[in-house]
Amino acid sequence: MDAFSPTTCPRLIIKVGSSLLVTPDGQVRRDWLATLAADIADRVKAGQQIAVVSSGAIALGARRLKLPKGGRASLEDAQAAAATGQIALSQIWAELLDAVALTAAQMLVTLDDLEDRRRYLNASATLNRLLMLGVVPILNENDSVATEEIRFGDNDRLAARIAQAAGAQGVVLLSDVDGLFDANPLTHASARLINRVDRIDGAIEAMAGADSASGMGSGGMASKIAAARIATGAGIALAIASGRIDHPLAALAATGRGTLFTAERSAGARKAWLAGGLTAKGDISIDAGAVKALVSGKSLLAAGVTSVAGGFLRGDLVAIIGPGGTPVARGLSEYDAVDAARLCGTRSEDQAAILGYAPRAALVHRNHMAML
Hints:
Strand order of the largest sheet: 3-4-2-1-5-7-8-6
Strand content: 15-25%
Shape: globular
Low-confidence stretches: 210-218
Mean pLDDT: 87
Oligomer: single chain
Number of strands: 13
Helix content: 25-40%
């Protein structure tokens, strides 16, 4: 797998899904997990810093509580299962890492922890200190308090956001498949593994079929593509590789079998955070001329805006949508939604009369915007 190897980047985030860690009847695949712990120990001894985003709490808790549908029959069941299973999950990781002379730490995060800039920076500082101390942070979404409206929903995207917060150079999503295929390998014998993706376009997204999700987890190939967008946009390489083999990190390094999404040139930390945000409070639709202006590095002016949707306030994150309905940028609005809507299509010299006060320089300033 050229241009990236889990053995070479200084700081790596590994994501382990529920289907790898827990059997369908709720038993931990402890022997397999021990081989991954051994891989992690080898890399830490070589000077690499590693954090793990680990699923499995809901699956483990559901078994202990005897809940139907793997603990996902309702939000309340998922929260109860997560609260119960997280203790067991943390204990397993602590024991296996201790057996290879490593110290584990637990961090539970919510979507808000990584979408709010101040809390994001606090999480970043904690991660950095733990990694500098040689500790292996074990992270998971805090499903015991997350709601349907305010949650990541899958640990693929969480891993990409954690990589941003940790200042990592690489992410490895260990999966129950070898990587991204051009067709479903279970139903198409001629399906071809895509070894390298330099640009995520419509053709790549079309390969992420809805039937690729595993039975226990909440993510599928579509969530992995979404994670790759977040990671690569922040200058972080992301690989999807099989976890259905022992010593999966060592195997990936030796064979390169998997799918590599190569990193784009990194934006600044603040703009990478903006681009990776998942909870835009509204949409601002723009015309083709405005798209061209944004691509050239200019701020978004009201003259190029065609419509506004949502109930955002000044300073909220908004998605900027092009003529074809495709998101082209994200940024912090200089106006609340009501005033932004009043300014749609207007020129700067007319805006004071419309608003009753002196207008700001732009609807979204380029310094508070990230192109997608």
